[in-house]
């Protein structure tokens, strides 16, 4: 029992005066020293720690862990942001409706050879057995083109705003290609 205390350090029982012998105070080498104890000195809690000279300051270890955690969160945030932006961009691109050539420009008694459309424009290819002059006259009336180019005897190109109609006569078949931009 240490003088001035009212309990036993080993079991915690209330101390009765003079029943215990005073606690011997020892220095580092096991000999009685100057009468002070080292009870308040920090004691290592890590059983694997060799000596106090190799002791890593707690703030250094915690600082590194915090730094690694912050970097990990930043990387995760960047990956998430990139994923969200890509997803939004893909939805915008896929959400744009495909346009088709105005059906009023389909020549009567023709058959569809090709019909392509996307968000930027559309192409429609038709074929008919009618002669080139008759087909050109019909498109002239329907489209009311700003420009007409007779490239050869068998080829005509008509253009109005965002629509281009190309007519080609070959082997008694007139091929009609209509391109419409957005």
Structural class: alpha+beta
Per the principal axes of the C-alpha atoms, what is the gross shape? rod-shaped
Helix content: 25-40%
| Largest sheet: spatial strand order | 1-2-6-5-4-3
**Portion in beta strands:** 15-25%
Question: What is the CA-CA span between the terminal residues?
Answer: 97 Å
What ranges have pLDDT less than 50 throughout 5 or more consecutive residues? none
Quickly count the domains: 3
Order of helical and strand elements:
HEEHEEEE
**Beta strands, count:** 6
> Count the helices. How many?
2
Largest β sheet strand count, sense and barrel closure: 6 strands, antiparallel
Radius of gyration: 47 Å
Mean pLDDT: 77
Keywords for this entry:
182 residues; alpha+beta; 27% helix
Q: What does this protein look like?
A:
This protein is α+β, with helices and mostly antiparallel strands and 182 residues long. The protein folds into three domains: 1-41, no CATH class; 52-92; 103-181, no CATH class. The protein is built from two helices and six strands; from the N terminus they run H-E-E-H-E-E-E-E. It has helices at residues 58-95, 132-143; strands spanning 111-117, 121-128, 147-152, 155-160, 163-170, 173-181. A six-stranded antiparallel β-sheet has the order 1-2-6-5-4-3, covered by helices on one side. Strand 4 and strand 5 form a beta hairpin. The longest helix has 38 residues, at 58-95. The radius of gyration is 47 Å and the shape is rod-shaped. The mean pLDDT is 77.
